[in-house]
Design a protein that fits this description.
Blueprint (H helix, E strand, L loop, with lengths): L2 E5 L2 E4 L4 E8 L7 E7 L6 E6 L6 E3 L7 E6 L4 E6 L8 E8 L14 E2 L3 E6 L1
Parallel strand pairs: 2-11
Antiparallel strand pairs: 1-3, 3-8, 4-5, 4-9, 5-6, 7-8, 9-10, 9-11
Length: 125
Amino acid sequence: QPQLVESGGGLVQVGGSLRLSCAASGFILDYYAIGWFRQAPGKEREGVSCISSSGGSTNYADSVKGRFTISRDNAKNTMYLQMNSLKPEDTAVYYCAASRFPCQVSKSGYGMDYWGKGTLVTVSS
C-alpha cells in the first residue's frame, strides 16, 4: 500500500520554526513530484510548495516565499518543509502529497496521486 506519513507538527509561537517531514513507503519517491498543502478550519485546501522529482525545481505560494523551504532526500524516501517566521495565518493541517505529474501550487493539490493524513500546525502568541 503506497503511503505518506507526515510528522513534525505542533504548537509554536509567532515567529517560531517547525520542520515537517513526510515519509513515503510502498512506492519509489524518486519518480514523483511532491507537494505540501494545507487546510485551515473552514477554508479550502491551498498549495504551499512543490518540488520536482529530482529536487531541481521548487515553487512556493506567495504567502510563504522567503519563510518556507521545501526539500527532499530520495535516498531516505522522505521530503521536508522547513517553516520559519511562522504567522498565525499559517495555522492549518499540513498534508504532503505525491504525483507522477508535475506539482502545481496553484492547483491546491488536485491531481496528486497519494496523500498523507496530515499533521496539525498551530501558531499562536
